[in-house]
Design a protein that fits this description.
- It is a single chain.
- By secondary structure, the chain is mostly helical.
- The chain is built from eleven helices and no strands.
- It starts with about 25 loop residues before the first helix and ends in a 5-residue tail after the last helix.
Length: about 260
Protein backbone atom coordinates (compact mmCIF):
# COMPACT_ATOMS: atom_id res chain seq x y z
CA UNK A 1 0.00 0.00 0.00
CA UNK A 2 1.12 3.56 -0.63
CA UNK A 3 3.03 5.13 2.29
CA UNK A 4 1.32 7.71 4.42
CA UNK A 5 3.05 11.12 4.73
CA UNK A 6 4.85 11.96 7.95
CA UNK A 7 2.37 13.85 10.14
CA UNK A 8 3.40 16.33 12.82
CA UNK A 9 0.75 16.56 15.56
CA UNK A 10 0.40 19.90 17.36
CA UNK A 11 -0.63 18.17 20.61
CA UNK A 12 2.25 17.13 22.87
CA UNK A 13 2.18 13.60 24.28
CA UNK A 14 2.70 13.11 28.01
CA UNK A 15 6.12 11.59 28.85
CA UNK A 16 7.31 11.95 25.24
CA UNK A 17 10.18 14.25 24.33
CA UNK A 18 9.57 16.43 21.29
CA UNK A 19 12.68 16.48 19.12
CA UNK A 20 12.40 20.18 18.26
CA UNK A 21 12.98 20.91 21.96
CA UNK A 22 16.28 19.02 22.18
CA UNK A 23 18.03 19.47 18.83
CA UNK A 24 20.19 22.48 18.03
CA UNK A 25 19.06 24.54 15.01
CA UNK A 26 22.75 25.01 14.19
CA UNK A 27 23.38 21.29 13.73
CA UNK A 28 24.20 20.31 10.12
CA UNK A 29 21.47 17.67 9.90
CA UNK A 30 18.85 20.10 11.19
CA UNK A 31 19.88 22.62 8.54
CA UNK A 32 20.00 19.99 5.79
CA UNK A 33 16.57 18.63 6.76
CA UNK A 34 15.05 22.06 6.07
CA UNK A 35 16.74 22.40 2.68
CA UNK A 36 15.94 19.02 1.09
CA UNK A 37 12.77 18.95 -0.99
CA UNK A 38 11.13 16.02 0.83
CA UNK A 39 7.76 16.72 -0.79
CA UNK A 40 9.21 16.16 -4.24
CA UNK A 41 10.68 12.82 -3.13
CA UNK A 42 7.29 11.75 -1.79
CA UNK A 43 5.56 12.70 -5.05
CA UNK A 44 8.18 10.97 -7.22
CA UNK A 45 8.45 7.78 -5.15
CA UNK A 46 4.77 7.28 -4.33
CA UNK A 47 4.20 5.95 -7.85
CA UNK A 48 6.34 2.89 -7.00
CA UNK A 49 3.81 1.69 -4.40
CA UNK A 50 0.53 -0.15 -4.95
CA UNK A 51 -2.84 0.63 -3.40
CA UNK A 52 -3.29 -2.73 -1.67
CA UNK A 53 -1.59 -4.40 1.28
CA UNK A 54 -0.29 -3.08 4.59
CA UNK A 55 0.65 0.58 4.99
CA UNK A 56 4.23 1.22 3.90
CA UNK A 57 6.70 3.19 5.97
CA UNK A 58 6.76 6.96 5.25
CA UNK A 59 8.97 7.89 2.29
CA UNK A 60 10.54 10.70 4.33
CA UNK A 61 11.68 8.11 6.90
CA UNK A 62 13.14 5.65 4.37
CA UNK A 63 14.78 8.37 2.25
CA UNK A 64 16.26 9.92 5.40
CA UNK A 65 17.66 6.55 6.51
CA UNK A 66 19.21 6.07 3.06
CA UNK A 67 20.85 9.50 3.24
CA UNK A 68 22.26 8.69 6.71
CA UNK A 69 23.50 5.30 5.54
CA UNK A 70 25.43 6.88 2.65
CA UNK A 71 26.76 9.82 4.69
CA UNK A 72 28.20 7.55 7.40
CA UNK A 73 28.97 4.56 5.12
CA UNK A 74 27.01 2.09 7.26
CA UNK A 75 25.16 -1.15 6.66
CA UNK A 76 21.36 -1.16 6.75
CA UNK A 77 21.47 -2.94 10.12
CA UNK A 78 23.86 -0.43 11.71
CA UNK A 79 21.91 2.52 10.30
CA UNK A 80 18.70 1.30 11.95
CA UNK A 81 20.50 0.53 15.23
CA UNK A 82 22.21 3.93 15.46
CA UNK A 83 18.99 5.74 14.51
CA UNK A 84 17.42 4.56 17.79
CA UNK A 85 20.13 6.38 19.78
CA UNK A 86 20.40 9.65 17.88
CA UNK A 87 17.78 12.44 18.16
CA UNK A 88 19.34 14.32 15.23
CA UNK A 89 18.91 11.31 12.96
CA UNK A 90 15.29 10.95 14.02
CA UNK A 91 14.60 14.65 13.45
CA UNK A 92 16.25 14.42 10.02
CA UNK A 93 13.90 11.55 9.12
CA UNK A 94 10.81 13.61 9.97
CA UNK A 95 9.99 12.21 13.41
CA UNK A 96 8.27 14.44 15.96
CA UNK A 97 9.07 12.56 19.18
CA UNK A 98 12.23 10.78 20.32
CA UNK A 99 11.90 7.00 20.45
CA UNK A 100 14.10 4.02 21.30
CA UNK A 101 12.08 1.76 19.00
CA UNK A 102 13.61 0.79 15.62
CA UNK A 103 12.01 2.76 12.76
CA UNK A 104 11.75 -0.31 10.54
CA UNK A 105 13.34 -3.64 9.75
CA UNK A 106 16.67 -3.24 7.89
CA UNK A 107 15.17 -5.21 5.00
CA UNK A 108 12.75 -2.31 4.43
CA UNK A 109 15.71 -0.17 3.33
CA UNK A 110 16.75 -2.80 0.78
CA UNK A 111 13.21 -2.98 -0.60
CA UNK A 112 13.04 0.82 -0.75
CA UNK A 113 16.19 1.01 -2.89
CA UNK A 114 14.80 -1.64 -5.23
CA UNK A 115 11.51 0.25 -5.52
CA UNK A 116 13.01 3.62 -6.44
CA UNK A 117 15.78 2.15 -8.61
CA UNK A 118 18.88 3.88 -9.90
CA UNK A 119 16.96 6.95 -11.08
CA UNK A 120 15.49 7.40 -7.61
CA UNK A 121 18.90 7.24 -5.95
CA UNK A 122 20.22 9.81 -8.43
CA UNK A 123 17.25 12.10 -7.69
CA UNK A 124 18.02 11.88 -3.97
CA UNK A 125 21.65 12.74 -4.62
CA UNK A 126 20.83 15.66 -6.91
CA UNK A 127 18.46 17.15 -4.30
CA UNK A 128 21.18 16.85 -1.65
CA UNK A 129 23.73 18.51 -3.92
CA UNK A 130 21.22 21.24 -4.71
CA UNK A 131 20.62 21.79 -0.98
CA UNK A 132 24.37 21.81 -0.31
CA UNK A 133 25.01 24.39 -3.02
CA UNK A 134 22.20 26.62 -1.73
CA UNK A 135 23.56 26.48 1.83
CA UNK A 136 27.19 26.87 0.66
CA UNK A 137 28.13 23.57 2.32
CA UNK A 138 29.07 22.29 -1.15
CA UNK A 139 31.01 24.53 -3.52
CA UNK A 140 30.90 24.17 -7.30
CA UNK A 141 34.65 23.53 -7.18
CA UNK A 142 34.11 20.42 -5.02
CA UNK A 143 31.36 19.06 -7.26
CA UNK A 144 33.70 16.48 -8.77
CA UNK A 145 33.83 14.51 -5.50
CA UNK A 146 30.05 14.40 -5.34
CA UNK A 147 29.75 13.33 -8.96
CA UNK A 148 32.35 10.57 -8.57
CA UNK A 149 30.77 9.32 -5.31
CA UNK A 150 27.44 8.89 -7.07
CA UNK A 151 28.77 5.95 -9.09
CA UNK A 152 28.09 3.38 -6.35
CA UNK A 153 25.20 1.75 -8.20
CA UNK A 154 26.86 0.43 -11.35
CA UNK A 155 25.22 -1.52 -14.14
CA UNK A 156 27.15 -3.43 -16.80
CA UNK A 157 26.33 -3.02 -20.47
CA UNK A 158 27.54 -4.38 -23.79
CA UNK A 159 30.21 -2.69 -25.89
CA UNK A 160 28.22 -1.61 -28.97
CA UNK A 161 25.71 0.00 -26.60
CA UNK A 162 28.62 1.54 -24.68
CA UNK A 163 29.64 3.46 -27.77
CA UNK A 164 26.18 4.96 -28.29
CA UNK A 165 25.94 5.99 -24.64
CA UNK A 166 29.42 7.50 -24.62
CA UNK A 167 28.54 9.67 -27.61
CA UNK A 168 25.15 10.56 -26.14
CA UNK A 169 26.73 11.60 -22.82
CA UNK A 170 29.44 13.65 -24.54
CA UNK A 171 26.91 15.44 -26.72
CA UNK A 172 24.62 16.14 -23.76
CA UNK A 173 27.44 17.56 -21.62
CA UNK A 174 28.65 19.79 -24.45
CA UNK A 175 25.10 21.15 -24.75
CA UNK A 176 24.85 21.85 -21.01
CA UNK A 177 28.29 23.50 -21.07
CA UNK A 178 27.12 25.87 -23.82
CA UNK A 179 23.99 26.75 -21.81
CA UNK A 180 26.18 27.50 -18.78
CA UNK A 181 28.52 29.65 -20.93
CA UNK A 182 31.44 27.27 -20.29
CA UNK A 183 33.95 27.44 -23.14
CA UNK A 184 35.40 23.96 -23.57
CA UNK A 185 38.95 23.45 -24.71
CA UNK A 186 37.67 20.79 -27.10
CA UNK A 187 34.13 19.49 -27.65
CA UNK A 188 34.90 16.56 -30.04
CA UNK A 189 31.71 17.40 -31.96
CA UNK A 190 33.29 16.30 -35.23
CA UNK A 191 35.27 13.20 -34.22
CA UNK A 192 32.80 11.94 -31.57
CA UNK A 193 29.97 10.87 -33.93
CA UNK A 194 32.51 9.41 -36.39
CA UNK A 195 34.02 7.26 -33.63
CA UNK A 196 30.58 5.92 -32.69
CA UNK A 197 29.93 4.98 -36.33
CA UNK A 198 33.28 3.19 -36.52
CA UNK A 199 32.54 1.14 -33.39
CA UNK A 200 29.25 -0.02 -34.90
CA UNK A 201 30.87 -1.03 -38.20
CA UNK A 202 33.81 -2.75 -36.46
CA UNK A 203 31.40 -4.70 -34.24
CA UNK A 204 29.38 -5.77 -37.29
CA UNK A 205 32.58 -6.89 -39.09
CA UNK A 206 33.80 -8.63 -35.88
CA UNK A 207 36.98 -6.52 -35.89
CA UNK A 208 37.08 -6.43 -32.10
CA UNK A 209 40.61 -5.06 -31.65
CA UNK A 210 39.77 -2.00 -33.72
CA UNK A 211 36.43 -1.69 -31.93
CA UNK A 212 38.10 -1.66 -28.49
CA UNK A 213 40.69 0.85 -29.63
CA UNK A 214 37.99 3.23 -30.90
CA UNK A 215 35.93 2.73 -27.72
CA UNK A 216 38.98 3.77 -25.71
CA UNK A 217 39.18 6.97 -27.78
CA UNK A 218 35.51 7.70 -27.09
CA UNK A 219 36.05 7.26 -23.36
CA UNK A 220 38.97 9.66 -23.49
CA UNK A 221 36.84 12.24 -25.32
CA UNK A 222 34.16 12.03 -22.63
CA UNK A 223 36.68 12.01 -19.77
CA UNK A 224 38.36 15.18 -21.07
CA UNK A 225 35.01 16.97 -21.49
CA UNK A 226 34.04 16.11 -17.88
CA UNK A 227 37.39 17.29 -16.49
CA UNK A 228 37.20 20.51 -18.49
CA UNK A 229 33.67 21.25 -17.23
CA UNK A 230 34.51 20.54 -13.57
CA UNK A 231 37.63 22.69 -13.85
CA UNK A 232 35.78 25.68 -15.32
CA UNK A 233 32.37 25.53 -13.60
CA UNK A 234 31.86 28.59 -11.37
CA UNK A 235 28.11 28.87 -10.78
CA UNK A 236 25.53 26.49 -9.33
CA UNK A 237 24.67 24.00 -12.10
CA UNK A 238 21.13 22.85 -12.79
CA UNK A 239 19.96 19.49 -11.46
CA UNK A 240 19.78 18.21 -15.04
CA UNK A 241 23.44 19.22 -15.58
CA UNK A 242 24.47 17.44 -12.35
CA UNK A 243 22.48 14.36 -13.41
CA UNK A 244 24.25 14.31 -16.81
CA UNK A 245 27.66 14.53 -15.12
CA UNK A 246 26.75 11.66 -12.79
CA UNK A 247 25.62 9.48 -15.70
CA UNK A 248 28.82 10.20 -17.62
CA UNK A 249 31.08 9.37 -14.65
CA UNK A 250 29.19 6.16 -13.97
CA UNK A 251 29.44 5.10 -17.60
CA UNK A 252 33.22 5.57 -17.53
CA UNK A 253 33.48 3.40 -14.41
CA UNK A 254 31.51 0.48 -15.79
CA UNK A 255 33.36 -2.75 -16.44
CA UNK A 256 33.12 -4.86 -19.57
CA UNK A 257 30.93 -7.94 -19.48
CA UNK A 258 30.93 -8.92 -23.12
Amino acid sequence: MKPKPTIQTPQKHLFQIELIDIVSPRHELVKLAKLIDWQRLEIEFKQHYGDKGADAKPIRLLAGLEYLKQIHKLSDENTVAMWCENPYWQYFCGMQFFTHEPPCDPSSMTRFRKRIGEDGVELMLSLTVDAGLKSNTIKPSSLREVVVDSTVMEKNIAHPTDSKLLEKCRNKLVGFAKQACIVLRQSYERVGPKAAQKVASYAHAKQFKRMKKTLKKQKNYLRRVIKDILRKITEQPSQAFIHALQQAERLLKQEKTS
